[in-house]
Amino acid sequence: MPPCRIRVDAIVSVRTVRFGAVREVHLVTLTTDGSAQAASSGTPENPWGDTKTAAAAAPSSGSLGPTGRPRPVFPEPRPRITHGPARVVAMVNQKGGVGKTTTTINLGAALVECGLRVLLVDFDPQGALSVGLGINPLQLDLTVYNLLMERGITAEEVLLKTNVDGLDLLPSNIDLSAAEVQLVTEVAREQVLGRVIKPLLPEYDVCLIDCQPSLGLLTINALACAHGVMVPLECEFFALRGVALLMDTIIKVQERINEDLEIEGLLATMYDARTLHGREVLARVVEAFGDKVFHTVINRTVRFPDATVAGEPITSFDPSSLGANAYRELAREVLARWPDTYADRAPRTTGEVPL
């Protein structure tokens, strides 16, 4: 008698980064024994095309990483003499609980260890990024909301220093939820964030925007002013279901608002190599997105929530932990993917709207 199967089907449409048609559709079926099967409609291929990145060209350590590809050796970044203007990266995934905030905090702190100045923007009304850096959102007089919606408020007035030297924050709280509605009637509503943070960008090397778990107007603002978008993706089956919608949104932003927007990469988070399910999901992501998937994988560990409770990055809370070292490795990989002249790139100016 054949084994009983419980079908849980998800169709993930994968498009090219810019102006492309659907290249491949994966049908993933999970079974009761924990295995996964995948079938493709059309010819299987890397939907991102020939992605020759500096990371892909890095020398290999000779061993396979958790993504099933040879693990590159990423060099230590060169010391920086000057700073700015910042490369703006939006952390986006409309599914909550996938590690966006954790990645924003800890990647930012790891980049600071590499000698960069980093600006973090809490663009989630829940204020999780602010809480994760030891700030009580309920005690804030000025937040990103005031910066967006009130004339006369400058970014310097809202900016907060964190406990990590070189890591600064534009905080948020529940007030930001009102901006989603209020921005609807604004002229150039998708470009407000880019306009208000522009004065700060010459002082930093990287700006990381922690977006809310939705694809609403706030997230569109982040994509409109960003050079790149990073997608943290939990290694769980249901985390794959929204990838098609997210990619479709990114393509629309590229076509209509920000043609220079790039995919920085997809980051596998909350990975547990002991489970067949986690390994299968990661394999499917790599099969679909190729070199756009970071070699670095963030494993599931209790040290991340412990660091959040302490209100500091894991790189300072537990410097020798596997989680801290994983984000240091991610920082080196991110820098390897960027051109050597990335710091000389002019900031996005789509937000320049006369006041």
Lay out the secondary structure.
Elements: E1 9-15, E2 22-30, E3 36-41, E4 60-64, E5 70-72, E6 87-91, H1 100-113, E7 118-123, H2 128-132, H3 144-149, H4 155-158, E8 160-161, E9 167-170, H5 176-182, H6 192-197, E10 206-211, H7 217-225, E11 228-234, H8 243-256, E12 262-269, H9 276-289, H10 303-310, H11 314-317, H12 322-337
Parallel strand pairs: 6-10, 6-11, 7-9, 7-10, 11-12
Antiparallel strand pairs: 1-2, 2-3, 4-5, 8-9
Helix pairs in contact: 1-12
Classification by helices and strands: alpha/beta
Number of domains: 1
Q: Would you report the number of β strands?
A: 12
Whole-angstrom Rg: 20 Å
Average pLDDT confidence is 80
Shape: globular
At CATH level 2, the architecture is 3-Layer(aba) Sandwich
CATH superfamily: P-loop containing nucleotide triphosphate hydrolases
N to C succession of SSEs: EEEEEEHEHHHEEHHEHEHEHHHH
Could you tell me the CATH topology label.
Rossmann fold
| Largest sheet descriptor | 7 strands, mixed
Sheet with the most strands: spatial strand order:
8-9-7-10-6-11-12
Q: How many helical stretches?
A: 12
CATH class: Alpha Beta
| Terminal-residue CA separation | 72 Å
Question: Segments where pLDDT lies below 50 for 5+ residues?
Answer: 1-57, 341-355
Helix content: 25-40%
- Portion of residues in beta strands equals 15-25%
